Amino acid sequence: MERYDVIIVGGGLAGITCGIELAQDRYNVLILEKELHMGGRASSWDSNGMAVDSGFHRVIGYYKHYPKLLQQAGINLNDIVVWEEKLDVLSPKHDHVTTFGVAPFHGPVKILRAMLGNNKSIAPKAKLSLIPFFKNGLHEFKVDPNKLDQISILDFAREQGVHEDAIHLFIEAMCRGIFFTPSERFSAYVFFGILAPAPQRFYKMRIGSYLGGMSDVMIGPLVDYFENLGGEVALNQGVERLITEGEKVIGVELGLKKFYAEQVVLSTDIGAAQYIISQSQLDQINFYSLLKLPTMPAVSVQIELTEPVLEHDRTTFAPGTVLGSFSEQSRSTFRQSKGRLSVMMASLEKLEDHTDEELLELIFKEADQIGISMRNKVIDYRVVRHGDKFYSVAPGHEILRPSQNTVVPGLTLAGDYTKQPYLSTMEGAVLSGELASENVKNALRESQ
Ligand SMILES: Cc1cc2nc3c(=O)[nH]c(=O)nc-3n(C[C@H](O)[C@H](O)[C@H](O)COP(=O)(O)OP(=O)(O)OC[C@H]3O[C@@H](n4cnc5c(N)ncnc54)[C@H](O)[C@@H]3O)c2cc1C
Fold it and tell me: How many Cα atoms are found within 13 Å in the side-chain-facing hemisphere of 170?
Protein backbone atom coordinates (compact mmCIF):
# COMPACT_ATOMS: atom_id res chain seq x y z
CA MET A 1 0.00 0.00 0.00
CA GLU A 2 1.47 3.32 -1.08
CA ARG A 3 1.30 6.07 1.53
CA TYR A 4 1.65 9.74 0.58
CA ASP A 5 2.68 12.71 2.66
CA VAL A 6 -0.29 14.58 1.26
CA ILE A 7 -3.35 13.68 -0.82
CA ILE A 8 -5.16 16.59 -2.45
CA VAL A 9 -8.76 15.91 -3.48
CA GLY A 10 -9.58 18.11 -6.49
CA GLY A 11 -7.35 19.37 -9.30
CA GLY A 12 -8.68 22.91 -9.73
CA LEU A 13 -6.48 25.98 -9.32
CA ALA A 14 -6.60 25.70 -5.51
CA GLY A 15 -5.52 22.04 -5.53
CA ILE A 16 -2.82 22.61 -8.15
CA THR A 17 -1.41 25.60 -6.20
CA CYS A 18 -1.37 23.63 -2.97
CA GLY A 19 0.30 20.70 -4.78
CA ILE A 20 3.02 22.91 -6.27
CA GLU A 21 3.78 24.61 -2.96
CA LEU A 22 4.16 21.22 -1.23
CA ALA A 23 6.05 19.47 -4.04
CA GLN A 24 8.53 22.37 -4.08
CA ASP A 25 9.34 21.44 -0.48
CA ARG A 26 9.84 17.82 -1.59
CA TYR A 27 6.74 16.38 -0.02
CA ASN A 28 5.31 13.31 -1.69
CA VAL A 29 1.96 14.59 -3.09
CA LEU A 30 -0.91 12.94 -5.00
CA ILE A 31 -3.75 14.95 -6.58
CA LEU A 32 -6.97 12.97 -7.16
CA GLU A 33 -9.27 14.58 -9.74
CA LYS A 34 -12.79 13.38 -10.48
CA GLU A 35 -12.91 14.55 -14.12
CA LEU A 36 -10.87 13.41 -17.11
CA HIS A 37 -9.08 16.78 -17.15
CA MET A 38 -7.50 19.05 -14.54
CA GLY A 39 -8.39 22.68 -13.90
CA GLY A 40 -11.98 22.44 -12.65
CA ARG A 41 -13.82 25.70 -13.25
CA ALA A 42 -10.79 27.23 -14.97
CA SER A 43 -10.36 24.70 -17.76
CA SER A 44 -11.07 24.13 -21.46
CA TRP A 45 -11.69 20.91 -23.40
CA ASP A 46 -13.03 19.39 -26.58
CA SER A 47 -16.77 18.73 -26.44
CA ASN A 48 -17.62 16.41 -29.34
CA GLY A 49 -15.55 18.39 -31.80
CA MET A 50 -16.21 21.88 -30.42
CA ALA A 51 -13.53 23.59 -28.30
CA VAL A 52 -15.18 24.95 -25.14
CA ASP A 53 -14.18 26.25 -21.74
CA SER A 54 -15.89 26.40 -18.37
CA GLY A 55 -17.03 29.90 -19.32
CA PHE A 56 -15.11 32.99 -20.36
CA HIS A 57 -12.64 34.16 -17.69
CA ARG A 58 -10.97 37.49 -17.06
CA VAL A 59 -7.74 38.10 -15.16
CA ILE A 60 -8.01 41.28 -13.11
CA GLY A 61 -4.87 43.42 -13.17
CA TYR A 62 -4.71 43.67 -9.37
CA TYR A 63 -4.24 39.90 -8.92
CA LYS A 64 -0.93 39.12 -7.14
CA HIS A 65 -0.96 35.47 -6.07
CA TYR A 66 -2.14 34.14 -9.43
CA PRO A 67 0.61 35.80 -11.55
CA LYS A 68 3.20 34.69 -8.96
CA LEU A 69 2.04 31.07 -9.28
CA LEU A 70 2.31 31.25 -13.08
CA GLN A 71 5.75 32.81 -12.82
CA GLN A 72 7.01 29.95 -10.64
CA ALA A 73 5.97 27.56 -13.41
CA GLY A 74 7.76 29.70 -16.03
CA ILE A 75 4.57 31.23 -17.49
CA ASN A 76 4.57 34.97 -18.13
CA LEU A 77 1.01 36.26 -17.67
CA ASN A 78 1.54 38.85 -20.42
CA ASP A 79 2.22 36.04 -22.90
CA ILE A 80 -1.10 34.31 -22.24
CA VAL A 81 -3.54 37.20 -21.98
CA VAL A 82 -4.43 40.24 -24.02
CA TRP A 83 -5.28 43.26 -21.86
CA GLU A 84 -8.51 45.25 -22.22
CA GLU A 85 -8.75 48.83 -20.95
CA LYS A 86 -12.50 49.28 -21.40
CA LEU A 87 -15.72 47.41 -20.88
CA ASP A 88 -19.07 47.95 -22.56
CA VAL A 89 -22.59 48.01 -21.19
CA LEU A 90 -25.55 47.34 -23.48
CA SER A 91 -29.04 47.83 -22.09
CA PRO A 92 -32.47 47.41 -23.71
CA LYS A 93 -33.23 50.86 -22.24
CA HIS A 94 -30.70 52.53 -24.58
CA ASP A 95 -29.95 52.25 -28.28
CA HIS A 96 -26.22 52.85 -27.82
CA VAL A 97 -23.20 51.35 -26.06
CA THR A 98 -22.02 52.81 -22.75
CA THR A 99 -18.28 52.35 -22.36
CA PHE A 100 -16.39 52.42 -19.05
CA GLY A 101 -12.61 52.73 -18.72
CA VAL A 102 -11.11 50.23 -16.30
CA ALA A 103 -7.39 51.05 -16.42
CA PRO A 104 -6.53 54.29 -14.54
CA PHE A 105 -2.79 53.94 -15.27
CA HIS A 106 -2.73 52.22 -18.68
CA GLY A 107 -5.80 53.98 -20.09
CA PRO A 108 -6.45 57.20 -18.10
CA VAL A 109 -8.01 58.99 -21.07
CA LYS A 110 -10.58 56.20 -21.45
CA ILE A 111 -11.53 56.59 -17.79
CA LEU A 112 -11.81 60.36 -18.13
CA ARG A 113 -13.81 60.05 -21.32
CA ALA A 114 -16.22 57.62 -19.60
CA MET A 115 -16.56 59.92 -16.58
CA LEU A 116 -17.20 63.04 -18.62
CA GLY A 117 -19.00 61.31 -21.50
CA ASN A 118 -21.78 58.70 -21.63
CA ASN A 119 -24.19 61.55 -20.85
CA LYS A 120 -26.87 60.14 -23.15
CA SER A 121 -27.23 57.04 -20.95
CA ILE A 122 -26.27 58.46 -17.57
CA ALA A 123 -26.70 62.15 -16.76
CA PRO A 124 -23.97 64.02 -14.81
CA LYS A 125 -26.27 64.20 -11.74
CA ALA A 126 -26.63 60.39 -11.76
CA LYS A 127 -22.86 59.97 -12.11
CA LEU A 128 -22.22 62.32 -9.18
CA SER A 129 -24.59 60.26 -7.00
CA LEU A 130 -22.04 57.44 -7.18
CA ILE A 131 -19.33 59.43 -5.35
CA PRO A 132 -20.71 59.13 -1.77
CA PHE A 133 -21.72 55.54 -2.57
CA PHE A 134 -18.10 54.57 -3.34
CA LYS A 135 -16.59 56.65 -0.57
CA ASN A 136 -18.89 55.33 2.15
CA GLY A 137 -19.00 51.77 0.83
CA LEU A 138 -15.22 51.38 0.70
CA HIS A 139 -14.94 52.97 4.15
CA GLU A 140 -17.56 50.56 5.61
CA PHE A 141 -15.76 47.68 3.93
CA LYS A 142 -12.65 48.55 5.93
CA VAL A 143 -14.18 49.38 9.30
CA ASP A 144 -17.22 47.07 9.56
CA PRO A 145 -17.26 44.39 6.84
CA ASN A 146 -19.71 42.19 8.78
CA LYS A 147 -22.29 44.96 8.83
CA LEU A 148 -21.88 45.45 5.08
CA ASP A 149 -22.58 41.74 4.56
CA GLN A 150 -25.99 42.13 6.22
CA ILE A 151 -27.38 44.30 3.43
CA SER A 152 -27.88 43.95 -0.32
CA ILE A 153 -25.99 46.32 -2.59
CA LEU A 154 -29.31 47.57 -3.97
CA ASP A 155 -30.50 48.61 -0.51
CA PHE A 156 -27.09 50.13 0.29
CA ALA A 157 -27.13 52.11 -3.00
CA ARG A 158 -30.65 53.41 -2.32
CA GLU A 159 -29.68 54.38 1.24
CA GLN A 160 -26.79 56.36 -0.23
CA GLY A 161 -29.11 58.14 -2.65
CA VAL A 162 -27.69 56.64 -5.87
CA HIS A 163 -29.72 57.66 -8.93
CA GLU A 164 -31.75 54.81 -10.47
CA ASP A 165 -29.97 55.20 -13.86
CA ALA A 166 -26.60 54.71 -12.15
CA ILE A 167 -27.96 51.69 -10.28
CA HIS A 168 -29.11 50.13 -13.56
CA LEU A 169 -26.10 50.87 -15.74
CA PHE A 170 -23.37 50.42 -13.21
CA ILE A 171 -24.40 48.50 -10.08
CA GLU A 172 -26.92 46.09 -11.61
CA ALA A 173 -24.60 45.55 -14.58
CA MET A 174 -21.68 44.63 -12.31
CA CYS A 175 -23.70 42.31 -10.04
CA ARG A 176 -25.23 40.33 -12.90
CA GLY A 177 -22.09 40.52 -15.02
CA ILE A 178 -19.60 39.32 -12.41
CA PHE A 179 -21.52 36.92 -10.16
CA PHE A 180 -24.71 36.47 -12.28
CA THR A 181 -26.88 37.66 -9.38
CA PRO A 182 -29.33 40.59 -9.31
CA SER A 183 -28.42 43.51 -7.06
CA GLU A 184 -31.30 42.88 -4.64
CA ARG A 185 -29.70 39.56 -3.68
CA PHE A 186 -26.06 40.64 -3.94
CA SER A 187 -24.21 41.31 -0.68
CA ALA A 188 -22.82 44.86 -0.36
CA TYR A 189 -19.73 43.23 1.20
CA VAL A 190 -19.12 41.15 -1.95
CA PHE A 191 -19.66 44.19 -4.21
CA PHE A 192 -17.06 46.30 -2.40
CA GLY A 193 -14.85 43.23 -1.96
CA ILE A 194 -14.49 43.10 -5.75
CA LEU A 195 -13.53 46.78 -5.90
CA ALA A 196 -11.47 47.11 -2.70
CA PRO A 197 -8.08 45.81 -3.96
CA ALA A 198 -8.19 48.06 -7.06
CA PRO A 199 -7.24 51.48 -5.52
CA GLN A 200 -4.09 50.04 -3.85
CA ARG A 201 -2.94 48.51 -7.12
CA PHE A 202 -4.53 51.03 -9.50
CA TYR A 203 -1.38 51.07 -11.64
CA LYS A 204 -2.00 47.39 -12.44
CA MET A 205 -5.71 47.63 -13.19
CA ARG A 206 -6.77 46.12 -16.53
CA ILE A 207 -8.81 43.12 -17.63
CA GLY A 208 -7.01 40.20 -19.29
CA SER A 209 -8.63 37.73 -21.75
CA TYR A 210 -6.87 34.47 -22.46
CA LEU A 211 -5.04 33.94 -25.74
CA GLY A 212 -6.05 30.29 -26.03
CA GLY A 213 -8.02 27.70 -24.07
CA MET A 214 -7.28 27.88 -20.33
CA SER A 215 -6.13 24.25 -20.19
CA ASP A 216 -3.65 24.87 -23.02
CA VAL A 217 -2.13 28.15 -21.88
CA MET A 218 -2.38 27.82 -18.09
CA ILE A 219 -3.53 24.53 -16.51
CA GLY A 220 -1.42 22.22 -18.73
CA PRO A 221 1.88 24.04 -18.01
CA LEU A 222 1.05 24.27 -14.26
CA VAL A 223 0.36 20.53 -14.07
CA ASP A 224 3.58 19.77 -16.02
CA TYR A 225 5.49 21.88 -13.52
CA PHE A 226 3.87 20.03 -10.60
CA GLU A 227 4.75 16.65 -12.13
CA ASN A 228 8.32 17.74 -12.86
CA LEU A 229 8.65 18.52 -9.16
CA GLY A 230 7.73 14.89 -8.45
CA GLY A 231 3.99 15.35 -7.82
CA GLU A 232 1.53 12.70 -9.01
CA VAL A 233 -1.85 13.26 -10.68
CA ALA A 234 -4.62 10.66 -11.05
CA LEU A 235 -7.64 11.58 -13.21
CA ASN A 236 -11.12 10.07 -13.19
CA GLN A 237 -10.89 9.48 -9.43
CA GLY A 238 -14.01 10.77 -7.68
CA VAL A 239 -13.41 10.60 -3.95
CA GLU A 240 -16.51 9.51 -2.02
CA ARG A 241 -15.48 9.90 1.60
CA LEU A 242 -12.59 10.55 3.95
CA ILE A 243 -11.14 7.65 5.93
CA THR A 244 -10.84 8.36 9.64
CA GLU A 245 -9.06 6.68 12.51
CA GLY A 246 -10.35 7.96 15.81
CA GLU A 247 -10.38 11.74 15.48
CA LYS A 248 -7.89 11.85 12.61
CA VAL A 249 -8.31 11.80 8.82
CA ILE A 250 -5.86 9.25 7.40
CA GLY A 251 -6.93 8.85 3.78
CA VAL A 252 -9.67 8.83 1.16
CA GLU A 253 -11.98 6.23 -0.31
CA LEU A 254 -13.28 5.80 -3.89
CA GLY A 255 -15.46 2.72 -4.28
CA LEU A 256 -13.18 -0.17 -3.39
CA LYS A 257 -10.00 1.89 -3.70
CA LYS A 258 -8.34 3.49 -0.71
CA PHE A 259 -5.43 5.94 -0.57
CA TYR A 260 -3.62 6.85 2.66
CA ALA A 261 -1.67 9.96 3.63
CA GLU A 262 -0.33 11.91 6.60
CA GLN A 263 -2.45 14.88 5.55
CA VAL A 264 -5.50 15.25 3.28
CA VAL A 265 -6.47 18.52 1.61
CA LEU A 266 -10.10 18.67 0.52
CA SER A 267 -9.84 21.05 -2.42
CA THR A 268 -13.09 20.51 -4.28
CA ASP A 269 -15.79 23.04 -5.09
CA ILE A 270 -18.23 23.84 -2.24
CA GLY A 271 -20.99 21.40 -3.34
CA ALA A 272 -18.60 18.44 -3.51
CA ALA A 273 -16.93 19.41 -0.21
CA GLN A 274 -20.33 19.43 1.50
CA TYR A 275 -21.13 16.01 0.05
CA ILE A 276 -17.78 14.40 0.99
CA ILE A 277 -17.88 15.79 4.54
CA SER A 278 -21.47 14.62 5.02
CA GLN A 279 -20.50 11.08 3.88
CA SER A 280 -17.48 10.84 6.21
CA GLN A 281 -17.38 9.65 9.80
CA LEU A 282 -16.62 13.07 11.21
CA ASP A 283 -18.36 15.04 13.90
CA GLN A 284 -20.60 17.08 11.56
CA ILE A 285 -20.95 19.87 14.09
CA ASN A 286 -17.31 20.82 13.39
CA PHE A 287 -18.37 21.61 9.80
CA TYR A 288 -21.57 23.39 10.67
CA SER A 289 -20.83 26.58 8.72
CA LEU A 290 -19.39 24.76 5.69
CA LEU A 291 -22.49 22.55 5.48
CA LYS A 292 -24.77 25.57 5.92
CA LEU A 293 -23.11 27.76 3.27
CA PRO A 294 -25.69 28.09 0.45
CA THR A 295 -24.65 27.60 -3.18
CA MET A 296 -25.81 29.30 -6.38
CA PRO A 297 -26.01 28.03 -9.96
CA ALA A 298 -23.87 29.27 -12.86
CA VAL A 299 -24.42 28.59 -16.57
CA SER A 300 -22.25 29.45 -19.57
CA VAL A 301 -23.58 29.25 -23.15
CA GLN A 302 -20.95 29.14 -25.91
CA ILE A 303 -22.08 29.76 -29.47
CA GLU A 304 -19.98 28.98 -32.55
CA LEU A 305 -20.82 31.44 -35.34
CA THR A 306 -20.14 31.98 -39.04
CA GLU A 307 -18.70 35.43 -38.26
CA PRO A 308 -18.05 37.67 -35.23
CA VAL A 309 -21.19 39.37 -33.92
CA LEU A 310 -19.30 42.10 -32.07
CA GLU A 311 -16.73 44.56 -33.32
CA HIS A 312 -14.26 43.84 -30.48
CA ASP A 313 -13.48 40.88 -28.21
CA ARG A 314 -14.44 42.90 -25.15
CA THR A 315 -16.19 42.15 -21.85
CA THR A 316 -19.77 43.39 -22.11
CA PHE A 317 -22.47 43.58 -19.43
CA ALA A 318 -26.17 43.64 -20.32
CA PRO A 319 -28.33 44.69 -17.34
CA GLY A 320 -32.04 44.10 -17.89
CA THR A 321 -31.42 40.91 -19.90
CA VAL A 322 -30.55 37.27 -19.15
CA LEU A 323 -27.12 37.87 -20.66
CA GLY A 324 -25.25 38.74 -17.46
CA SER A 325 -21.99 39.21 -19.32
CA PHE A 326 -20.67 38.14 -22.68
CA SER A 327 -17.75 38.44 -25.02
CA GLU A 328 -16.84 37.69 -28.61
CA GLN A 329 -13.81 35.36 -28.42
CA SER A 330 -12.87 34.56 -32.00
CA ARG A 331 -9.96 37.03 -32.02
CA SER A 332 -8.62 36.07 -28.59
CA THR A 333 -9.37 32.73 -26.89
CA PHE A 334 -10.82 30.68 -29.76
CA ARG A 335 -8.91 31.98 -32.76
CA GLN A 336 -9.74 28.85 -34.79
CA SER A 337 -13.40 29.99 -34.78
CA LYS A 338 -14.85 32.36 -37.38
CA GLY A 339 -17.13 33.77 -34.72
CA ARG A 340 -17.64 32.79 -31.08
CA LEU A 341 -19.91 34.37 -28.51
CA SER A 342 -19.55 33.25 -24.90
CA VAL A 343 -22.38 34.21 -22.54
CA MET A 344 -22.65 33.98 -18.75
CA MET A 345 -26.34 33.75 -17.96
CA ALA A 346 -27.92 35.90 -15.22
CA SER A 347 -31.31 35.54 -13.47
CA LEU A 348 -30.62 31.83 -13.07
CA GLU A 349 -33.17 31.27 -10.35
CA LYS A 350 -35.78 31.49 -13.13
CA LEU A 351 -33.79 29.56 -15.73
CA GLU A 352 -32.43 26.53 -13.93
CA ASP A 353 -35.04 24.17 -15.39
CA HIS A 354 -34.74 25.48 -18.95
CA THR A 355 -33.44 23.03 -21.53
CA ASP A 356 -30.38 23.95 -23.59
CA GLU A 357 -32.62 24.82 -26.57
CA GLU A 358 -34.79 27.08 -24.41
CA LEU A 359 -31.74 28.91 -23.05
CA LEU A 360 -30.41 29.48 -26.58
CA GLU A 361 -33.79 30.77 -27.74
CA LEU A 362 -33.91 33.18 -24.79
CA ILE A 363 -30.43 34.46 -25.62
CA PHE A 364 -31.46 35.08 -29.26
CA LYS A 365 -34.55 36.99 -28.11
CA GLU A 366 -32.83 39.16 -25.52
CA ALA A 367 -29.67 39.72 -27.60
CA ASP A 368 -31.97 41.10 -30.31
CA GLN A 369 -33.20 43.70 -27.79
CA ILE A 370 -29.65 45.03 -27.38
CA GLY A 371 -28.94 45.05 -31.10
CA ILE A 372 -27.13 41.71 -31.50
CA SER A 373 -28.61 39.47 -34.12
CA MET A 374 -27.09 35.99 -34.43
CA ARG A 375 -29.88 33.47 -35.06
CA ASN A 376 -28.86 32.95 -38.72
CA LYS A 377 -25.14 32.74 -37.96
CA VAL A 378 -25.13 29.81 -35.53
CA ILE A 379 -23.01 26.76 -36.44
CA ASP A 380 -23.12 24.95 -33.09
CA TYR A 381 -23.41 25.67 -29.38
CA ARG A 382 -22.79 24.17 -25.94
CA VAL A 383 -24.31 24.83 -22.54
CA VAL A 384 -21.97 24.32 -19.56
CA ARG A 385 -23.80 24.08 -16.22
CA HIS A 386 -21.94 24.54 -12.94
CA GLY A 387 -24.64 23.31 -10.51
CA ASP A 388 -23.63 23.90 -6.91
CA LYS A 389 -19.97 24.85 -7.43
CA PHE A 390 -20.26 28.49 -6.29
CA TYR A 391 -21.16 29.70 -2.82
CA SER A 392 -24.01 32.17 -2.91
CA VAL A 393 -23.08 35.89 -2.85
CA ALA A 394 -26.35 36.85 -1.12
CA PRO A 395 -26.06 38.85 2.13
CA GLY A 396 -25.16 37.01 5.35
CA HIS A 397 -22.96 34.27 3.88
CA GLU A 398 -19.48 35.68 4.44
CA ILE A 399 -19.49 34.54 8.06
CA LEU A 400 -20.16 30.94 6.95
CA ARG A 401 -17.05 30.64 4.79
CA PRO A 402 -14.73 28.21 6.59
CA SER A 403 -11.02 28.71 7.21
CA GLN A 404 -8.52 26.38 5.48
CA ASN A 405 -7.58 25.13 8.92
CA THR A 406 -10.00 22.60 10.48
CA VAL A 407 -10.22 21.22 14.01
CA VAL A 408 -9.81 17.70 12.62
CA PRO A 409 -6.20 16.46 12.64
CA GLY A 410 -5.02 15.44 9.17
CA LEU A 411 -7.63 17.53 7.30
CA THR A 412 -7.21 20.92 5.60
CA LEU A 413 -9.64 22.68 3.25
CA ALA A 414 -8.83 24.62 0.08
CA GLY A 415 -10.95 26.16 -2.67
CA ASP A 416 -12.36 29.55 -3.59
CA TYR A 417 -15.21 29.22 -1.06
CA THR A 418 -12.77 28.99 1.89
CA LYS A 419 -11.95 32.19 3.75
CA GLN A 420 -9.76 34.62 1.79
CA PRO A 421 -10.49 38.12 0.54
CA TYR A 422 -10.72 37.49 -3.21
CA LEU A 423 -14.13 35.79 -3.27
CA SER A 424 -14.85 33.14 -5.95
CA THR A 425 -12.06 34.04 -8.33
CA MET A 426 -8.90 32.47 -9.68
CA GLU A 427 -6.94 34.76 -7.35
CA GLY A 428 -9.03 33.53 -4.41
CA ALA A 429 -8.55 29.88 -5.39
CA VAL A 430 -4.76 30.32 -5.68
CA LEU A 431 -4.52 32.15 -2.35
CA SER A 432 -6.63 29.44 -0.66
CA GLY A 433 -4.21 26.83 -2.04
CA GLU A 434 -1.22 28.74 -0.65
CA LEU A 435 -2.87 29.09 2.78
CA ALA A 436 -3.78 25.38 2.78
CA SER A 437 -0.19 24.40 1.93
CA GLU A 438 1.11 26.49 4.87
CA ASN A 439 -1.32 24.72 7.17
CA VAL A 440 -0.23 21.30 5.90
CA LYS A 441 3.49 22.13 6.20
CA ASN A 442 2.99 23.23 9.81
CA ALA A 443 1.11 20.01 10.62
CA LEU A 444 3.78 17.85 8.95
CA ARG A 445 6.58 19.67 10.78
CA GLU A 446 4.79 19.22 14.11
CA SER A 447 4.30 15.49 13.54
CA GLN A 448 7.99 14.90 12.80
C1 LIG B 1 -18.11 30.44 -16.00
C2 LIG B 1 -17.12 30.93 -15.02
C3 LIG B 1 -16.55 32.17 -15.20
C4 LIG B 1 -15.58 32.62 -14.28
N5 LIG B 1 -14.99 33.83 -14.50
C6 LIG B 1 -13.93 34.20 -13.71
C7 LIG B 1 -13.20 35.36 -14.01
O8 LIG B 1 -13.51 36.08 -14.97
N9 LIG B 1 -12.14 35.68 -13.23
C10 LIG B 1 -11.78 34.92 -12.15
O11 LIG B 1 -10.79 35.24 -11.50
N12 LIG B 1 -12.48 33.81 -11.83
C13 LIG B 1 -13.54 33.43 -12.58
N14 LIG B 1 -14.25 32.30 -12.29
C15 LIG B 1 -14.00 31.62 -11.01
C16 LIG B 1 -12.80 30.67 -11.04
O17 LIG B 1 -12.87 29.83 -12.15
C18 LIG B 1 -12.87 29.83 -9.78
O19 LIG B 1 -12.92 30.67 -8.65
C20 LIG B 1 -11.65 28.92 -9.61
O21 LIG B 1 -11.34 28.27 -10.81
C22 LIG B 1 -11.98 27.90 -8.53
O23 LIG B 1 -10.93 27.01 -8.34
P24 LIG B 1 -11.03 25.90 -7.20
O25 LIG B 1 -9.82 25.08 -7.29
O26 LIG B 1 -11.36 26.56 -5.91
O27 LIG B 1 -12.33 25.05 -7.56
P28 LIG B 1 -12.64 24.17 -8.86
O29 LIG B 1 -12.05 24.78 -10.07
O30 LIG B 1 -14.10 23.93 -8.84
O31 LIG B 1 -11.85 22.82 -8.58
C32 LIG B 1 -12.37 21.78 -7.81
C33 LIG B 1 -11.94 20.47 -8.43
O34 LIG B 1 -12.40 19.41 -7.61
C35 LIG B 1 -12.82 18.35 -8.45
N36 LIG B 1 -13.70 17.47 -7.67
C37 LIG B 1 -14.98 17.69 -7.29
N38 LIG B 1 -15.44 16.64 -6.61
C39 LIG B 1 -14.43 15.75 -6.53
C40 LIG B 1 -14.30 14.46 -5.95
N41 LIG B 1 -15.31 13.88 -5.30
N42 LIG B 1 -13.11 13.80 -6.07
C43 LIG B 1 -12.08 14.36 -6.74
N44 LIG B 1 -12.15 15.57 -7.32
C45 LIG B 1 -13.32 16.27 -7.21
C46 LIG B 1 -13.53 19.08 -9.57
O47 LIG B 1 -13.71 18.25 -10.70
C48 LIG B 1 -12.58 20.24 -9.82
O49 LIG B 1 -11.57 19.93 -10.73
C50 LIG B 1 -15.23 31.82 -13.16
C51 LIG B 1 -15.81 30.57 -13.00
C52 LIG B 1 -16.76 30.12 -13.91
C53 LIG B 1 -17.35 28.77 -13.73
Answer: 27
